[in-house]
Design a protein that fits this description.
Elements lengths: L2 H10 L4 H26 L3 H11 L1 H29 L7 H4 L1
Length: 98
């Protein structure tokens, strides 16, 4: 069974609302605790990171952000191209069905 099939079946299974709420709340709690813990661990290094950013100048930060954003957009575009290339073009249109 492929991963896509498993993801589609998850939405079809009947779920008890209380059970869903319990696991959803636990998942949110795990994310909250992990972010708070990471903030606590790295809070002492925040001033150091800001100092480095000031030394490098705002041009570096803007350039680095632009490069990362461009790389991300390129990655998403390539993912989409691979997906579209893999889609079966033999499908019925609404006019053919009627």
């Amino acid at each position: 069974m492929s991963n896509i099939t498993v993801q589609q079946r998850q939405g079809l299974e009947p779920t008890n609302y209380a059970r869903f709420l319990l696991f959803d709340s636990l998942g949110a709690l795990i994310w909250i605790v992990s972010y708070v813990f990471a903030g606590y661990v790295f809070s002492g290094q925040l001033e150091l990171a800001i100092g480095y950013a000031i030394q490098m100048g705002s041009g570096f930060v803007i350039t680095a952000t632009a490069i990362l954003f461009t790389a991300w957009i390129t990655w998403k575009y390539l993912q989409r191209c691979r997906f579209v290339k893999g889609v079966n073009p033999n499908f019925s249109t609404s006019s053919e069905v009627m």
